[in-house]
């Protein structure tokens, strides 16, 4: 079944009248891009304590147990104390002098070796205080051969710090990207409405259509962010029902054809009749709308987007391949495109833009159904493969 969208006149977003404000020019009072870049870069005041980054030398840290290390310290101090006392007494030292001197030496030896036990704990305390102040770059630096409980605790602490630093950077990236995504349509709306209020442009159907487009963009972004919050909270319920999969895809493609008017993409659906599947139609529509819309966005005008459906009966899966022809995604970048706010590169004649959330939400919707979304090798172009189980398995 092949459809091609009929071309329509393109929409104007600015007026041709003299003095009209360009809608893509941002008012000066908005946050400048360099501030967003500073947020993305995670610029913050460093609270790193002095000495946290100094590497600790632990003379007996290579032993596998803290108990063994304590026994070794006590045994070594005791043996040295007895040996020194015997030598001093043998050479005629007074016992009242030899015994205190021996005790001081034994305590000094114990203190020297126990530093390796206490110093990492001090480092972890200082690092925890620095992290509480917002500095997630601090680490506990131990020798790589520290294999006792303290060494393992230090490595676990550093892994936790890495995760916290990564999560904090993701939060900063999200704030910066959301600010940018919201600013663009809001600024365009503000410029267009101000031009109309000042009498610079007329409220013509074309200008009102441009305003409507920006409100749709805002609405889509808000919907994406709501889905993102559900992803974070894991608070997504499914309304599972059985339905005809070909009819479902047919209904999903129609609005995309209408939205694609003017770009003349052909959306070709190839699916056998009678394929039925269990799932939440709203979530699956969200999945395939994002995947197919992404394929359209990264296809040159006048090209075809192919949607192929087949069953893997031996696995109980329904596989859908969405292919846009001509371009390729490097193997190293295939896992990154499903991360939030990551936008794919566009080639000549393709659209940029988008929120960078569509593919991450598509993968989330597939995972809710026990399925997968991935990019597979295909000589024809970029091939997104969606695998969904025919029958929904409820979580226990």
UniProtKB/TrEMBL annotation:
Residues 177-392 form the Histidine kinase domain. Its EC number is 2.7.13.3. Residues 115-169 form the HAMP domain. GO terms for cellular component: plasma membrane. Keywords: Kinase, Membrane, Phosphoprotein, Transferase, Transmembrane, Transmembrane helix, Two-component regulatory system. Residues 1-51 are annotated as: Disordered. SUPFAM superfamilies: ATPase domain of HSP90 chaperone/DNA topoisomerase II/histidine kinase, HAMP domain-like, Homodimeric domain of signal transducing histidine kinase. It is found in: Cell membrane. The chain crosses the membrane at residues 68-89, 95-114. Its main location: membrane. Residues 22-33 have a biased composition (Basic and acidic residues). Residues 1-16 have a biased composition (Polar residues). Pfam families: HAMP, HATPase_c, HisKA. It is an enzyme of class 2 (transferase). InterPro entries: BphY/WalK/GraS-like, HAMP_dom, HATPase_C_sf, HATPase_dom, His_kinase_dom, HisK_dim/P_dom, HisK_dim/P_sf, Sig_transdc_His_kin-like_C. This is Sensor-like histidine kinase SenX3. It comes from Bifidobacterium ramosum.
């Amino acid at each position: 079944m092949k459809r091609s969208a009929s071309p329509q006149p393109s929409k104007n977003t600015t007026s041709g009248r003299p003095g009209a404000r360009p809608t893509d020019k941002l008012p000066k009072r908005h946050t400048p891009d360099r501030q967003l870049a500073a947020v993305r870069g995670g610029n913050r005041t460093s609270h790193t304590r002095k000495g946290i980054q100094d590497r600790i030398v632990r003379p007996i840290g290579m032993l596998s147990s803290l108990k063994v290390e304590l026994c070794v310290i006590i045994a070594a101090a005791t043996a040295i104390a007895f040996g020194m006392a015997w030598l001093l007494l043998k050479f005629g030292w007074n016992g009242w002098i030899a015994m205190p001197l021996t005790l001081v030496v034994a305590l000094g030896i114990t203190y020297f070796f126990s530093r390796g036990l206490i110093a990492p704990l001090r480092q972890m305390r200082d690092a925890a205080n620095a992290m509480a102040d917002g500095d997630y770059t601090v680490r506990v630096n131990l020798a790589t051969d520290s294999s006792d409980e303290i060494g393992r605790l230090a490595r676990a602490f550093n892994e936790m710090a890495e995760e916290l630093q990564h999560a904090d950077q993701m939060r900063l990236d999200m704030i910066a990207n959301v600010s940018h995504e919201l600013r663009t349509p809001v600024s365009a709306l503000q410029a267009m409405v101000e031009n109309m209020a000042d009498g610079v442009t007329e409220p013509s159907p074309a200008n009102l259509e441009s305003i409507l487009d920006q409100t749709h963009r805002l609405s889509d972004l808000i919907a994406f962010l709501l889905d993102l919050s559900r992803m974070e909270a894991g608070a997504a319920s499914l309304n599972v029902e059985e339905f005809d999969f070909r009819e479902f895809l047919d209904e999903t493609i129609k609005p995309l054809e209408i939205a694609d008017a003017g770009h003349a993409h052909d959306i070709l659906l190839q699916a056998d009749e009678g394929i039925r599947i269990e799932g939440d139609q709203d979530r699956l529509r969200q999945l395939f709308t994002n995947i197919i819309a992404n394929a359209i966005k990264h296809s040159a005008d006048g090209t075809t987007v192919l949607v192929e459906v087949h069953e893997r009966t031996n696995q109980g899966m329904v596989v859908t391949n969405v292919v846009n022809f001509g371009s390729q995604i490097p193997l190293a970048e295939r896992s990154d495109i499903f991360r939030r706010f990551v936008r794919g590169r566009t080639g000549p004649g393709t659209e940029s833009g988008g929120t960078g959330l569509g593919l991450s939400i598509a993968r989330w919707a597939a995972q809710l159904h026990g399925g997968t979304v991935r990019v597979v090798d295909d000589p024809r172009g970029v091939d997104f493969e969606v695998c969904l189980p025919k029958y929904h398995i409820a979580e226990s």
